[in-house]
Amino acid sequence: MRPLALLPRPGRARRAVLLCAGVLTGGVFGLAWWVDRFGRREHVGEADALVVLGARVLPGGVPSGALMARVEQAAALYHRGVAPWLLLSGGVGTHPPSEARVMRELAVAAGVPASACVLEEDSHSTEGNARFSARVLRERGARRVVVVSDPYHLLRARQCFRREGLEVATSPAPIAGRMRARDRAYWTVREAFALLLHPRLLWARAPDGR
């Protein structure tokens, strides 16, 4: 048995735990602040394509509020002439059909020609959105894109698409009236945790190094 004098002092161990907890908490909430601030601003310029990230499809193929808002925002950008076509990214979730197919119906109803809607139906995550979308974009010669999603999702989405070698601008879908403040706070903190768990995303830069 070690002499009592050599045992770690409870106060010192407690301070170490508190310090680690403080660093982790500060990191999470610091990232959450960045996630929130980034998602509140539109970063849109002329692009080769608009990429719309999928969201939940409800039973019977009914689009969720998030899915409708994302497509409405992308359709508005299309009509402004930001890009000549939409890449709708999202596979089949809990309820069919695929998110991409539901988004195409919404986009056409919003006045986007069906010929301007391209589907990507293999992805089931943000990283999958970026990976499979990048393949389609390269095949069509697209390099500069505007990614459309919920505000709290845009920072991580941009970083994922940057890792695929794309120039990325972002445009937030409106969430006022369809999401409570506490729900937005929850998803913002969740995104911060996702970035902390995948720190390589934080180092992704635009292809030209900016």
TrEMBL record:
GO terms for cellular component: plasma membrane. The chain crosses the membrane at residues 16-35. InterPro entries: Cell_Envelope_Assoc, DUF218, Rossmann-like_a/b/a_fold. It comes from the Bacteria. Residues 48-191 form the DUF218 domain. This is YdcF family protein. Keywords: Membrane, Transmembrane, Transmembrane helix. It holds the Pfam family DUF218. It comes from Corallococcus carmarthensis.
